[in-house]
């Protein structure tokens, strides 16, 4: 986790450095500073430092992470990473419906409504997949 924390800090420093360079570069033109890019880079830098802060706070609350030990092995990481459905088709249907919904934002609202019509049953099916049937928990 320490390496990820350092990557967040590196991202923040890089984005702030690029915001400074970009501000000076665009200020040299006759149009002046291009504020959208500068503010976007500043927000990207703040995001990097937010990641560093969150990972630092989390690292202090937890025990020593095996990924921080240079001599650690993968099998030292304990715990369950979660439950993943190996046979579910619902994510595919939900992704297709979400693609239609996003296409509807560009094409027209009627396409978005068609996508939402397919997205709601896919989301309900994926949520309640393990409540009944042969794979019930």
Report on the architecture of this protein.
This protein has 137 residues and is mainly alpha-helical. The protein contains four helices and no strands. It has helices at 2-27, 35-61, 90-107, 109-127. α1 packs antiparallel against α2 (35-61). The mean pLDDT is 88.
Question: What is the averaged pLDDT score?
Answer: 88
What is the helix fraction of residues, given as a range?
55-70%
Shape: flat
Extract low-pLDDT stretches: none
Largest sheet: none
Order of helices and strands: HHHH
Strand content: under 5%
Radius of gyration: 23 Å
For the structure shown, list the relevant keywords.
single chain; 137 residues; mainly alpha; 66% helix; 0% strand
Brief summary of the model shown:
The chain has 137 residues and is mainly α.
Q: Any chance you could write out the topology, listing elements then pairs?
A:
Layout: H1 2-27, H2 35-61, H3 90-107, H4 109-127
């Amino acid at each position: 986790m320490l390496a990820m924390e350092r990557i967040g800090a590196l991202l923040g420093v890089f984005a702030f450095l690029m915001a400074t360079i970009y501000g000076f570069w665009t200020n040299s033109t006759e149009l002046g500073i291009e504020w959208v890019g500068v503010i976007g880079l500043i927000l990207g830098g703040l995001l990097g430092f937010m990641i560093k802060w969150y990972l630092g706070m989390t690292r202090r609350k937890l025990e020593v992470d095996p990924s921080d030990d240079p001599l650690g092995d993968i099998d030292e990481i304990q715990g369950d990473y979660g439950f993943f459905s190996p046979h579910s088709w619902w994510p595919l249907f939900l992704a297709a419906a979400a693609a239609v919904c996003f296409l509807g934002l560009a094409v027209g609202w009627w396409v978005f409504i068609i996508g939402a019509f397919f997205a709601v049953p896919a989301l309900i099916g994926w949520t309640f997949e393990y409540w009944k049937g042969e794979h019930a928990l």
